[in-house]
Amino acid sequence: MDLSNLKPAEGSTKNQGKRIGRGQGSGKGGTATRGHKGAKSRSGYSKKLGFEGGQMPLQRRVPKFGFTNVNRVEYQGVNLDKLQELADNKKIKDAVDFQTLVDLGLAGKNDLVKILGRGELKSKLKVSAHKFTASAKAAIEAAGGEAVTL
Questions:
Q1: What is the pLDDT of residue 3?
Q2: Which end of the chain is more exposed for a tag (fewer CB within 10 A), N or C?
């Protein structure tokens, strides 16, 4: 230990910061470090989110674009090759229902599931889902399985 690394004991000193707006004798009276006039000197001032000093803000400069269909139904897609992979890894036996897909992390519990036709299916599976593509349904039935629409 030497003089360069001495410091006061923990909790023995207090750093309470500047006392602002406590009269002229403090050196921080008068405008209380806020400068003169303008919005920032007033009480109750808060800058709006995205405010750019009066310049037209970005969210107003950028044009509105596109259209959102409120009636759109989103499906979580699961491909046949994924089902075949699960069958090969013994994660599924002979039936695949919605709860199984949720447990395996292929869909969320509030999702709608659509079986898609990528890849090939060799296993005989009874697949239950909300929707099937025509190619997926044909492939499942060709493998001797069954496609059940929920």
A1: 93
A2: N
3-state class (DSSP) for residue 36:
coil
Q: So what's the pLDDT on residue 94? A: 84
Biggest CA-to-CA distance, the chain: 93
| Pairing status of strand 95-96 against strand 126-129 | parallel
User: CA separation (Å) from 127 to 2, 103, 139, 146?
Assistant: 77, 15, 11, 6
Q: Which structure tokens are listed for 103?
A: 């447990």
Exposure string over 12-45, b if 16+ CB within 10 A, otherwise e? eeeeeeeeeeeeeeeeeeeeeeeeeeeeeeeeee
Work out the average pLDDT over 82-109.
88
Distance, first Cα to last Cα, the chain: 76
